[in-house]
Amino acid sequence: MKAPLLAAYSPLLLLVACGRAEPVADMPSQEELAAAANAAAANALANAQKDDAGDSRNYVNIDHGYSVTMPEGWMKDGEASNADGVVYQDPGAGADVRVFWQKNDNDQTLQQIVEALSDGAEGVDGDFIGENEYRGTANDGEGNNVALRLLKQPDGAIVTATFVYPEMLSEQYQPIAQALLDSLRIFAPKAQTPEGQTPEGASATATPAPAANTSN
After folding, report:
1. Which end of the chain has fewer beta carbons closer than 10 Å to its terminal beta carbon, N or C?
2. Residue pair 169/177 in contact by the 8 Å Cβ criterion
3. pTM
4. Torsion angles phi and psi, residue 144, rounded to 5
5. DSSP letters spanning 74-108
């Protein structure tokens, strides 16, 4: 934020340094200088907030070893989010995305976990991609489609991403859901990387599969 402020004051600093004698009528008043400085500060703050908003789209959970890119303009639900994951909502249409890590105490297979998820949804359909990834769709029984992706980490823990949106808006939300699920990546958790940093080039354990049919 300092750079724009310095830029606003640069003309005045140059005038003082060079000792130029300009007619009083041509010199900016104190009010004008203050207004210019305030405008520069406001612009810098707006740019910083814009940059922060853009960065916030990329959610990275270093402790549990995964990352995902949220849709532009969506808002984080702080109350529903916690150390294990995050919830983002579309403020306009009732859609939301939930990405969470879960410890797999019973060392269940991905197939067993998907079967358990299927018990609470309707029209579940999808594909296993190897032993450590599942992509599918379902209906929550309340007029919403659900696009989901599950990734099993090397230690057995599961990262689940669910994208829920109104069925009547499928055409609008399907490509958004596809892009978000494709962006989900897993990597070594912080406990396994002493530096606590995301390894360069971290990627999912399997190549993303084509979007499944969400029409139910």
Report:
1. N
2. no
3. 0.64
4. -120, 140
5. -EE-TTT-BTTEEEEE-TTTS-EEEEEEE--TT--
